[in-house]
Amino acid sequence: MENNGKILLVDDDEQLVGLMRQNLELEGYEIICAYDGDEALEKAEQVQPDIILLDVTMPKKTGFEVCRILKERPQTRFTPIVLVTALGRREEKIKGIESGADDFLSKPVSQEELLARIKSLIKVKKMHEELEEIENILYTLINIIDAKDAYTRSHCERVTSLAVLLAQELKLSNEQISLIEKAAKLHDIGKIGIPESILNKPGALTVEEFNVIKQHSVFGEKICEPLRSLRPVLKIIRHHHEHFDGTGYPDGLSGEKIPLEARVIAIADGYDAMATNRPYRNALLQAEIVDILHEGSGSQWDPDITKAFLKMIGENIFE
Prior knowledge:
Elements: E1 5-10, H1 14-26, E2 29-34, H2 37-47, E3 51-55, H3 63-72, E4 81-85, H4 90-99, E5 103-106, H5 111-147, H6 155-169, H7 174-186, H8 196-199, H9 207-213, H10 216-224, H11 234-238, H12 260-275, H13 286-296, H14 303-314
Parallel strand pairs: 1-2, 1-3, 3-4, 4-5
């Protein structure tokens, strides 16, 4: 029989689990069972199911607790979770929504409704997976771009690490940190459209060559634009070279008109450029970088973010 997907079925009622398992296996699903919250967390990580049917009232951990934990884990945050409950009260549904549940079913569960919900949510999950595959292709392109230049090799990885650390220092939300991480990984993808003769030129760039370089943030936005999952990071990629005083590119934005996430990446990007060897100069000493950061605070970089970054340098967080 064709395998239509992998379902983790979680309920402390063994008789109900047995019945649901039998019915779902007849429909072509592979069923993995768990009988309490801790076992559910363990098996969700082990088997990576396509969907989780999760009872609310269970020993050790409630369905709400399990759902919240799974939605916080990177490997299971996009796995659809259906909370199955006999409670049906409005406050319980609100609690389920807050824990990150994708859908709800009330006991006794209608077989027709159950199958319809499963098919719909598995389809959504597969679409997410396809988008992730496309994103991974873009990340691979970034690695290829980095690898072509010994001077900037692993630049995007370093900028991502620095930007995430800075975002945490600034106590930004998990959502903002996630956007910063994704945008930082992709911030230089537009360089794929810049000739290597310009990217790797050992001397000073001409005005015309620098104007070509300045297009890479626009190219990056256009490359990522077709992907709906990347739409939240498009403006971050486009504006990571804007200056706080409005003298940057491509649009000359200033102050808080520049997305906060772009301002965070800008200083991480600038630091890495100064701290590594480039075709036109050797890496600067840390003391020189600190002086430049002080000088650029309020002009090139957001002064509050610069202050936080300098504090991190002083605490040797990057060592």
